[in-house]
Design goal:
Elements lengths: L3 E5 L4 E16 L2 E12 L5 E2 L4 H20 L2
Antiparallel strand pairs: 1-2, 2-3, 3-4
């Protein structure tokens, strides 16, 4: 999926972007978790881009990681 094109709101033009894994912290039921999600970054300015469908994909990634972490806790 590398070198796809979409509109960058930072550059204000259509540019290529690269998908990279990043870590985010989220608190669920007063417990903090670190999740690895996929983000798109503009190849021109380096800004993070909102790519159609990426938010849904990340929700699936977070759900899978949360369920795995919850099973390891014994919940």
């Amino acid at each position: 999926m590398e070198n796809q094109r979409d509109f960058c709101t930072e550059c204000r033009r259509e540019t290529n972007y690269t998908l990279k894994k990043i870590k985010i912290n989220q608190t669920i039921w007063e417990k903090e978790y670190t999740f690895e999600i996929t983000a798109a970054f503009c190849n021109k300015c380096g800004g993070e881009m909102g790519i159609p469908g990426l938010m849904d994909y990340n929700m699936k990634e977070i759900d899978e990681q949360y369920r795995k972490a919850s099973d390891n806790i014994g919940g």
